[in-house]
Amino acid sequence: MFTLAVLTGIAGVAIGGFVWSGMYNIGADDMHLRPTSMMLRMMRERSIARHAGAIKVPDLSDGALISQGAGNYSSMCTGCHLAPGMQDTELSKGLYPAPPNFSKLEAVNPAHAFWVTKHGIKASGMPAWGRSMDDQYIWGMVAFLQQLPKLDKTAYDAIVASSEGHSHGGGETMSPVGEGMADDHGDMPMKDKPSDESKPHGHPPGTTPHQDKAAADSSPATVEHRRADGTVESHPAPTATKANDGHDHQH
Predict the structure, then answer these.
(1) Domain that residue 182 falls in
(2) What is the CATH number of the domain that holds 112?
(3) Nearest to 70 by CA among 132, 174, 181, 158
(4) Which of 51, 58, 163, 195 has the most CB atoms at less than 10 Å from its CB?
(5) 31-79, pLDDT tens digit by residue?
(6) Residue 183, CB half-sphere, CA atoms under 13 Å: how many?
(7) Nearest CA-CA partner of 118 in 101, 138, 145
(8) pLDDT digits (tens, 9 = 90+) for 88-131
(9) CB under 8 Å to 166, separation ≥6 — which residues?
């Protein structure tokens, strides 16, 4: 007669064998089995509810807080969670589980939204923004999420334009795309990062600002070879061919 310990051991071996076999398709383009999906969803929702239970929600109706959150949402969240009038992006279409489109959802639970934004979710595309943002800026995005479902594209664009853009006190990742312009895939960019030329810097005597840089850019590069007798021979360096960035593909 099998005892509980024996049955538990057999089950453990069977599960371990299944995991080790690699039979389960872990690809993001293949949905979980229904029981697996239900278990993961329940575990996620219960975990968020438990860990966010003690969070005290501040006043989220402050206009400045909402505006601040709009700028950060536009820069940090639209690639996955989209915005009013925005089509699916390469990222939002490729993630599994699929990220929610917050512009089409009812206002989310503020405490839950704060906890998820700050801590992220394992094995998903949701990062832990708390590693680069202070709580006050996270609350700004939560405040904006309460307003987002009420906005059409015109109202959304207006509140983003009136914000300070991607600004949360340090650690922001800048984009080479111009402020307020969408890139080729519809993702809203972040503020342009000033180039090093905008910083104070010196120039050699007798040159005008940036004249030395222009001269250097126009001068051909050289390669030097030292002979065995100690003399040095110089000749122009071979011209490098730019590599294709590989981002010319069909949608």
Answers:
(1) 68-192
(2) 1.10.760
(3) 158
(4) 163
(5) 999 999 999 999 999 999 999 999 999 999 999 999 999 999 999 999 9
(6) 17
(7) 138
(8) 999 999 999 999 999 998 879 999 999 999 999 999 999 999 99
(9) 71, 72, 74, 75, 76, 172, 173, 174, 190, 191
